[in-house]
Amino acid sequence: MGVPRSRAAPGSADRQTVLRREAMTNRRRNAGFTLIEVLIGATLLAILMTLLTNALFTMTHTARAGEARLEDLDSSRLVLSFLRRQLQNAFPMTERDGNDGRALFEGRDDRLRFVGRLPIAEGGGLQFIEIAVVRGDLVMRYRDAWPDTPFAEPDSGWHGRLLLAGVRRARWRYFGARDEDSAAGWIDRWRGHDRLPALIRLDIDRGDEEMSTLVAEVRVRTAVAQPALFREPPDGAP
Fold it and tell me: How far apart are CA 125 and CA 104, in angstroms?
């Protein structure tokens, strides 16, 4: 008689089927990523690269804006330093033929005109200098101070220089006693006096930036007639 075959325990076939399926699934997992996993990974990588690109662009833009701001601040400091020197050395002069002893100095709240000496002017000598805001820019105009040239000459023979761009307003103020009987104080106009103001203040408003301010102390105030300091105009000069 043959040996009888052992009969499988109930449910063992099902367990073996489950084990085989799990083994096949594990083999598939070990073989590599599924298509869905690849798509998810690619999407996350694209999002990450976009974020990095935007961050790099923002950092570059911020750095360039900061550099431009520093350059503009340096330019503003240079301009204010230049103006302070010019105002400190303003000449308290009268016209050659008298002018009743009134100084050649016309100060308003929006414009200043005075006599000075500019290093950029050709030939040296004295110049009539005017500083004002023109079409949104702080501009300096100057012309040679010939003996017979009126201080309030119309717009002819002037040279121009841009000082600061993008200026909303430039406000001038003047401190001092206008005569021996007046008390010193800040005023918006200075004209027709026999002396220059003791202090000249300029406030520059550039819109969204902080207000720039300079205060210059005038070194020589009392007006005197000094025709020897005026140059004689060359032939054909305006």
Answer: 16
